[in-house]
Amino acid sequence: MDDEEAVVVWSGLPDDILDKVLLCLPSHSLSRMRAVCKQWHSLLSSPSFLQRYDSRFCYGEDHVLVFVVSSCEAMMYNPISSKWHLLPLVDSPLSTLYNMMERAVTAAAGGLVCILGKYAAQDSNCTLRQLLVCNLLTKSWRCLPPLPPECPQIGQPIMGMLHDQQNFCYKIITVWPDRGPIVEYDSRNSTWTVIGRCPVSFLSFKSMQSTVCEGLLYFLVEGGPLRGGMFVRAYDIHHREWHTPSAPLPSRDLQSPCLVEHKGRILMAGLIRGVGIRLWRLKLWTMGWEIVAEMPSQLFADFNLDTPGFPSRVNCMRICDSIYFISNFRRPIVAYEVMKNVWHMLPMSYPPSCSNPDGMEQYFSVQPSLNDAV
């Protein structure tokens, strides 16, 4: 079938057949189909179609891995098809914030991501912050109101995000260490509210990564019951209180620890020198850790390409039943399927255009949705 015949076939399809065909497309393709013609743009933007499209999947089981490599493009890995897809970022906050001093994705929930940008104020030596929420597929975004004056002017808080799919709203929680404020943003009224204070014993955050699980915001801190040491602490978002007790790290030799949620449980991954990468599960009744798995030595050797002795860093993301271990862009990504207890390496098939010209690099998991409004 040539191009002219294809045009005749597609233009002659009844609306109900066209609707069913478009419902079968993956989300990254669906966003591009809006540019085909006015009819398709109108159909793909209608609330009824978006609701039917999102209802095809079990919520929370259609996540993808997004790898931001420059201000104008990102890579999206779909674990269902085991393929990488180019995700243009033109007209998105990440391209808009390109000239800022810093920009980083600080939290994600549903199909939305929260982005923190920093820029130098005019006629001043101070640095100003700008928070945005964005849907990368629809390229829709919103600048959030300034943080309350109680928030420190320097430093960066831990951030967590909760998404309510049924009510089309979300919340963002920020926690500042050393008696700093705990501040909540509610999209329903677009306001920030100070809801508490961080304990004085929390000297600092050891990682900007946080994980939301069963209404609790988990993160790594230094101080408290283990002065000079690191431990995991949780904040109950719904009841606005601290969850006790704390959980010390599973090993004193653990380096580059990171937290991830899996089916209502908290997992921790990290590096142990001379051993490799291990994965633990938090036992809530004792706040202790049990080993889940250890990366096979050959996979660890392939994963460890930065230095001959030890990788410089590691991060992990959960997508469906798998935990993905990441070092940096264009390095092998290793996946561990928890239920099957199987390790494997992801296919690395980036397009030639993805050359990482800015040196920009971020990765996060998100549930693609055309229906999540900012």
From TrEMBL:
Any Pfam family the entry gives: F-box
Domain of life: Eukaryota
Record domain F-box: where: 7-53
Listed InterPro entries: F-box-like_dom_sf, F-box_dom, Kelch-typ_b-propeller, SCF_F-box_component
Name of this protein: F-box domain-containing protein
Organism of origin: Sphagnum jensenii
